[in-house]
Fold this protein.
Amino acid sequence: MTLRKTGIAVTMTATLGLAACVPQGEPMGERTQTGLIAGALGGAVLGAAVDDDDRGRGALIGAAAGALAGGTIGQILDRQARDLRSSMANDQILINNTGEELIVTMPEGILFAVDSAAIRAGLQQDIRALARNLQQYPNSTVDVIGHTDNTGSASYNQDLSARRASAVAGVILEEGVNPGRIRSYGRGENEPVASNLTPEGRQLNRRVEIVIRPTR
């Protein structure tokens, strides 16, 4: 049996076995399943490569370990995303659970005036709610990333995006989140999510993203 076929077979075995171990009353979310499968496949390939004498055995051990780690991370992200959604007051905030990280997107309009990096008075409550969530789930790193549209010069947009990311990170730190977990930086106009040819697209591009990655 080839390494690829071995990995697929033991991935299915390990994933199904560990899925059966999820406690009753704790529903397995879509991202938990994704974590199980991704972890199992990665572990199977690594295990087979390490155990040259018995690739099937090595793959099965690796798959089980990988699925357990991936499934655990997936469950944590599912719970954290649910808690975040319930704590956010503004429904314009987007929470995307990829199965490996959470991406929280805050549009410019709910945080900043045009061309400003000062967070508007009274609009910090959702950032503080996010910070409290990070305190509840301490085993992660957090990137705070500012983005702009392409209006104005690239150098100006880069500076504005970095200052906005720093402002949001500052509020998170005020809530007592460990500074070692947080880094902030700007991407300027370099990573649009929509066309800059329309006002609607430019509005979507002006945002701050908070990317939460569980530590393994």
